[in-house]
From TrEMBL:
Residues 174-508 form the Solute-binding protein family domain. InterPro entries: SBP_5 (IPR039424), SBP_5_dom (IPR000914), SgrR_HTH_N (IPR025370). The lineage of its organism: Bacteria, Bacillati, Bacillota, Bacilli, Bacillales. It holds the Pfam family SgrR_N. Keywords: DNA-binding. Coiled coil: none annotated. Residues 2-98 form the Transcriptional regulator SgrR N-terminal HTH domain. It comes from Cytobacillus gottheilii. This is SgrR family transcriptional regulator.
Length: 574
C-alpha cells in the first residue's frame, strides 16, 4: 500500500488537520490494518514527508499524539500531477476519482491540466501533438442515431457516421457524400442514389446498397428516434451493388433533408449495432467509450480528406457540471464554458475566446393534446405571463444568454409582452382549483435547475407543479402525451432551417410533437408554429451563448449548428 493510501486512511478516520489528537500506536495499527511494528514504520515515513507531527508518549499511562499537517486532497493532486505525461493524463485523473477529491480541488486540477499543462506539451518530434483532450460533463453511452437525438451525442455521431448526401449551409445546397449522384422522378415519389465505390466501414467491410437499405429500414424497429423520416416510404429497392432506390406512396420533395440527417447515417448490415462502440464510415472511429472517457481515433481509410487531428479524448466530470460551489480557493476566475456546459473556473489570459449564439433553444411545451392544459386556455395564458425568460437568465446565469420566442431567431419579431397582472386575471378566469400539474424533463443540460426555477415561480402565483426527471433514454419510452402537462428540454437547431422545422414538428424525440393538438395541419410548418404560439402551446425560454477557449496555435476553430467545435477542421500551427 502506498504512503498516500495510509495517510488517507488516517485522514478519513481522524477527520482533523493541524490539531493534536491523543492516540496510541496500537490504535493506529488497528486503523491501518497492520502490525504494531509496521505502524511505527509508516509513522516514521509520514514524518519524513512532513505530513504529520508525531509525539510519542513518555512514561506509563501517557498517550502519544498525532497532528495531520496536510489536506489529503492536495496531496492527491500533487501525486496526480506527477503521474501525467504529454500523451496520457488518464492515471492522474483516475487517481482523483479514486480518492473522491472534493469538487473545488477537482476544479482547480481540471483547469490546470486542460488549460496549462496540456497546452505546453510538445509532441515526440518537437511539434504539437495531433491530439485534443478536453473535459465534458456527462458520459455518452448511447451513440446510435436510432436511439438518441441529443446535442452532444449528435455532435460525436457526426464524426462517426456518413450519409448519402450532405447539406451545405453557405450555398443552401446538397452535396455528394456516400452517394456521388442522385435523381428523382417528376412527382418526387422515387429517389435513386448512386454510391461511391470502395468506401470502407471502420471494421474494414466495403459499404454497399444493402447497407444503405438496412440503415433506413431499421428505423422501423424499437421506437427509433428517426422512424418519422420513413413516413410514406413504401419500399427500398437494391437495384445494384452501388445503386439504391427509395419509393414513396406520396410525393416527397424533402427527402434530401431527411437523407442528410443523422437518421440517414449508414451502418454496416453485417455487425450488430452497439450503442457505445458503433461502426460507421466517418472520419473518426470510437476506440474507447466508458463512464470516464470517450476516445475518437482518426479513421485512416476514410474515403474523403483525412482530418488533421489523430485522436480526440473527452474526459467526463459530471460532478463539476453547472457548478456554483464556493470559489474562494480559486483566484481570478470567470464564468467559463465547461466545453459546452456552464462551469465555474479559472480565468486564463493567454487563451483566445470564440463565441456564437446557439441556433436552438430551451423549450417548455404545454400539453394541447390531453389534460387540464389542453382543456383550459386561461391556465396556459397565465403560465405564459408568469414565466419571464429575462428573469430566468438573470437568476440562473451560466451560459443562458438570450431570450427566445421562435424556433429560429431569424423569424422572431419583437419580445413577447408579458404581464403578471394579465397572468393573474387569466388564472382567475380559468376556474383552476389548484390541481397539481406534472412537468417532465430529462437529466442534464441544465434541465433540473430550469425546472426548479419554473416550479418556484409558478408556486408563488398559485400554480403547483410536480417535477419528474428521467434519463434521456427512459424519457422517450414513456407516453409523454398522457403523462406530462409540461415538457422541458432542448429544441436542437440544424444547419438547414427546413430540417430544423421538420424535426421539431415531426421528429419522434421532439418535445413539441408529444403535445401538439390531436388534429393539426402540418403542411405549412411556419403557420403551424404561429398557431401553436397563439394558443400558448409552447414557450421558448432562452438560447445559450456557446463559447470555447483555446490556445493561439489552434487553428480552424468554428462552431457547427449544435454549438460544438467541428473536430475535422482543427489543426495545430507548427
Amino acid at each position: 500500500m502506498k504512503l498516500l493510501e495510509h495517510y488517507d486512511i488516517l485522514f478519513q478516520s481522524l477527520k482533523e488537520t493541524n490539531n493534536e489528537i491523543k492516540i496510541t500506536v496500537q490504535d493506529l495499527s488497528e486503523m491501518l490494518s497492520c502490525t504494531y511494528r509496521n505502524a511505527k514504520i509508516i509513522l516514521r515515513k509520514l514524518e519524513e514527508q512532513n505530513w504529520i507531527e508525531w509525539k510519542p508518549g513518555k512514561g506509563r499511562g501517557n498517550l502519544s499524539s498525532i497532528k495531520l499537517l496536510k489536506d489529503v486532497d492536495h496531496l492527491v493532486v500533487d501525486e496526480a500531477k506527477s503521474m501525467l505525461t504529454p500523451t496520457s493524463i488518464d492515471a492522474g485523473i483516475n487517481l482523483l476519482k479514486k480518492y473522491g477529491v472534493k469538487e473545488s480541488v477537482q476544479r482547480e486540477f481540471v483547469d490546470w491540466v486542460f488549460h496549462t499543462y496540456l497546452g505546453k506539451q510538445l509532441g515526440p518530434e518537437g511539434g504539437k501533438l495531433a491530439r485534443l483532450h478536453f473535459p465534458s460533463y456527462r458520459p455518452l453511452p448511447v451513440l446510435d442515431p436510432a436511439k438518441v437525438n441529443r446535442r452532444s451525442e449528435n455532435h460525436i455521431m457526426r464524426h462517426i457516421f456518413s450519409t448519402l448526401v450532405t447539406y451545405n449551409q453557405e450555398n443552401d445546397e446538397f452535396l455528394p457524400y456516400l452517394a456521388h449522384h442522385w435523381e428523382h422522378n417528376e412527382d418526387y415519389t422515387k429517389w435513386t442514389f448512386y454510391l461511391q465505390k470502395a468506401v470502407l466501414f471502420h471494421h474494414g467491410k466495403e459499404m454497399t446498397a444493402e447497407d444503405v437499405r438496412y440503415s433506413f429500414i431499421r428505423h422501423r424497429e424499437n421506437r427509433s428516434a428517426y422512424e418519422w423520416i420513413l413516413d410514406g416510404l413504401e419500399d427500398v429497392q437494391v437495384n445494384h451493388r452501388y445503386t439504391i432506390q427509395f419509393v414513396f406512396a406520396d410525393t416527397c420533395p424533402s427527402f434530401l433533408y431527411l437523407a442528410s440527417s443523422l437518421g440517414g447515417s449508414i451502418l454496416p448490415e453485417d455487425v450488430p449495432v452497439t450503442s457505445e462502440l458503433p461502426v460507421g464510415t466517418g472520419p473518426y472511429k470510437i476506440s474507447e467509450n466508458t463512464e470516464d472517457k470517450l476516445v475518437l481515433t482518426v479513421f485512416s481509410d476514410y474515403f474523403l480528406r483525412r482530418p488533421f487531428l489523430d485522436e480526440i479524448t473527452l474526459y467526463f466530470f459530471p460532478q463539476l457540471y453547472d457548478n456554483a460551489a464556493d470559489l474562494q480557493s480559486v483566484s481570478n476566475y470567470e464564468d467559463m464554458n465547461f466545453y459546452h456546459y456552464p462551469y465555474q473556473g479559472r480565468k486564463v489570459q493567454e487563451f483566445k475566446k470564440y463565441t456564437m449564439l446557439d441556433k436552438g433553444s430551451k423549450l417548455l411545451t404545454l400539453n394541447l393534446h390531453k389534460g387540464i392544459l389542453a382543456e383550459n386556455a386561461y391556465v396556459r395564458e397565465a403560465i405564459f405571463h408568469f414565466l419571464s425568460p429575462e428573469k430566468l437568465i438573470e437568476e440562473l446565469g451560466g451560459s443562458r444568454f438570450k431570450t427566445a420566442s421562435r424556433i429560429l431567431k431569424k423569424f422572431e419579431e419583437k419580445n413577447q409582452e408579458r404581464s403578471v397582472l394579465a397572468g393573474k386575471k387569466a388564472l382567475a378566469a380559468s376556474g383552476y382549483k389548484g390541481e397539481t400539474l406534472t412537468l417532465i424533463s430529462y437529466v442534464g443540460a441544465g434541465n433540473e435547475a430550469d425546472a426548479k426555477w419554473i416550479q418556484k415561480v409558478l408556486r408563488t402565483k398559485g400554480i403547483e407543479l410536480e417535477l419528474k426527471f428521467y434519463t434521456y433514454t427512459e424519457l422517450h419510452k414513456r407516453e409523454l402525451h398522457k403523462e406530462a402537462d409540461l415538457l422541458l428540454g432542448e429544441q436542437i437547431g440544424d444547419e438547414s432551417d427546413v430540417y430544423t422545422y421538420l424535426s421539431a414538428f415531426r421528429g419522434n424525440h421532439s418535445l413539441l410533437k408529444h403535445h401538439l393538438p390531436k388534429a393539426v395541419n402540418d403542411e405549412d410548418l411556419l403557420s403551424l408554429e404561429n398557431k401553436i404560439l397563439k394558443q400558448n402551446g409552447h414557450i421558448h425560454l432562452y438560447r445559450l451563448n456557446q463559447f470555447a477557449f483555446y490556445h493561439h496555435d489552434v487553428k480552424g476553430v468554428s462552431f457547427n449548428a449544435l454549438g460544438w467545435i467541428d473536430f475535422t477542421k482543427l489543426w495545430y500551427e507548427a
